[in-house]
Design goal:
Layout (H helix, E strand, L loop, with lengths): L3 H13 L3 H13 L4 H19 L5 H16 L4 H14 L3 H14 L4 H13 L3 H14 L4 H13 L3 H18 L10 H14 L11 H5 L12 H7 L5
Helix pairs in contact: 1-2, 2-3, 3-4, 4-5, 5-6, 5-7, 6-7, 7-8, 7-9, 8-9, 9-10, 10-11
């Protein structure tokens, strides 16, 4: 007869092989029987979340189950709380519960202010709610924590674009294209947004011909508005008329 530890190892093996539904059910059974509930409920949440996205059924049933598992993980211990809140917030946004998602991710950010994933996810949710001005700061924080966060870059570009700040938007779209091209061999999905960014760059250059090009620009410093680069009080759009955006 299998011990709980052996069953847990088997669940991890199924999880690794993509057998999400069966692994999730086994993790739940282990957690409900008191075996490492914080971690096993958390792993069950991951399994049900991945199963929903992998099956692309669109019913949301597995996402609801994943959310319940993450909540039970939090109730069982605090060591995985920030990660569980991140997953809950993303699930809530996917299910159309944007206001809940914002609150959940702000809580997650409070628990772990040094997570670029949490800051980036909060910015994505705020963008999705049309709160573009509020989205800028967490997205910049994500990039300060991880300059290669392409999701934060494309979302920051979209925020600037919708705030009618063509200079920052153009520079950020350009930086996204550069970074995504460099990293797409590691994460192929990153490259899927390059055509969207390129179209936006073309639109902005056509609409604002004074935004010219210079491939030597330090894009990350430009995007993050490094204070040592620019004069205090300079209007952002005026600033970006003075630099030359590379494309």
């Amino acid at each position: 007869m299998e011990t709980d530890s052996q069953r847990e190892a088997r669940a991890h093996s199924m999880m690794s092989s993509g057998n999400w539904s069966t692994a999730g059910a086994l993790f739940v059974d282990l957690a409900q029987n008191g075996h490492n509930p914080e971690h096993n409920f958390y792993n069950a949440g991951i399994c049900f979340e991945y199963n929903e996205y992998g099956q692309r059924r669109g019913s949301g049933a597995d996402l609801e189950e994943a959310k319940r598992c993450f909540q039970k993980s939090i109730a069982s211990g605090a060591s995985l709380e920030a990660g569980a809140l991140l997953s809950i917030g993303l699930i809530e946004m996917t299910l159309g519960e944007s206001e809940n998602a914002e609150l959940t991710l702000r809580n997650a950010k409070f628990k772990d202010p040094n997570s670029f994933q949490i800051s980036g996810a909060l910015g994505w949710v705020l963008n999705g709610m049309g709160k573009y001005k509020d989205a800028v700061e967490p997205l910049k924080q994500a990039l300060n924590l991880n300059p290669n966060d392409c999701d934060a870059l494309i979302n920051l570009a979209i925020a600037y674009d919708n705030l009618q700040q063509p200079g920052p938007a153009l520079a950020t779209y350009k930086l996204f294209c550069d970074k995504a091209a460099q990293l797409s061999h590691l994460h192929p999905s990153i490259g899927s947004n390059i055509p969207i960014a390129q179209q936006a760059i073309g639109r902005l250059i056509t609409k604002f011909p004074d935004l010219k090009t210079d491939p030597k620009s330090n894009w990350l410093d430009i995007v993050l508005m490094k204070p040592n680069l620019f004069g205090i009080g300079l209007d952002l759009n005026e600033l970006f008329k003075r630099i030359r955006v590379g494309y």
